[in-house]
Amino acid sequence: MSLRAKTIYVVVTTLFLVAFAIPLVGLAQKGEFEEFLGRVNQKLSSIETLSASFKQVRETSAPGQKMEAGGKLFLDKPRKVLLDYDRPERQKFLVNDTEVTVYVPSMNQVQKYSLSGKLETDQLFVFWEPLSKLEEHFSVAQVRQKGTRLRYVELVPKDKATWEGLKRITLGIDPDLLLPTFVDVEEAGGDRVKMTLSNVKTNPKLDSSVFLLKLPAGVEVVDFSKEENAPE
């Protein structure tokens, strides 16, 4: 998988986890676990669309290297997501099934990618599957953190080869919303992507035009969807 594809994979996987994963929470008592998990599952199964504001922080393994970004996100089952960045610069990052389109207005450029390979597609959408499917791919443990009302769950890939580049994912679940509102994706090389959601709305009415990019005339199109053109 190319470096660009890995970056796309990390960001998009994070968003699908936040919106539609069925998380596991290893609570101290089995009764509490079953009750909480049941409520979370019920909430998540009722979601067809989602919108929210997001703050994204990428920390690299190099000391002092931190990149912050933010904007709004929109999701629509089964396989659509839009990240509409408004900082540090405007960008639109659209996933429609296995097609990925990145629009960078400052460059007057559109970049196209394809996740049509079976491995990448399975990785991208595994978090839309039932709980049993998620358990097939990850070992799950409760993570206790002081000074927060969120309940944290750590997901570690069972097959390192399949989930190349991914070390662990930590979910922070809001006990009132019954949704993950914080995700920490740690890559094998030490880089981390942290995403925090706010102003979360479930099942808003999203017009289909939300997932259509309106591009100006003369925009440059760079197509990386063909493997031979994809940068390493």
Walk me through the topology.
Layout (H helix, E strand, L loop, with lengths): L2 H18 L9 H16 L3 E11 L6 E11 L3 E8 L3 E6 L2 E6 L4 E6 L3 H8 L5 H7 E6 L7 E7 L8 E9 L4 E9 L4 E11 L17 E4 L9
Parallel strand pairs: 6-12
Antiparallel strand pairs: 1-2, 1-11, 2-3, 3-4, 4-5, 5-6, 7-8, 8-9, 9-10, 10-11
Question: Nutshell version of this structure?
Answer:
The chain has 232 residues and is an alpha+beta fold. It is 21% helix and 41% strand.
Features:
outer membrane lipoprotein receptor (LolB), chain A; 232 residues; 4 helices; disordered N terminus; 12-stranded mixed β-sheet
Account of the 3D structure:
With 232 residues, the protein is α+β, with helices and mostly antiparallel strands. It has one domain (3-229): outer membrane lipoprotein receptor (LolB), chain A (Clam). The protein is 21% helix and 41% strand. Strand 8 (151-157) and strand 9 form a beta hairpin. Residues 1-5, 21-29 and 118-132 have low confidence and may be disordered.
The biggest sheet amounts to:
12 strands, mixed
Averaged pLDDT = 76
Helix content range of the residues, please? Answer: 10-25%
Q: How many domain units? A: 1
In terms of quaternary structure, the protein is: single chain
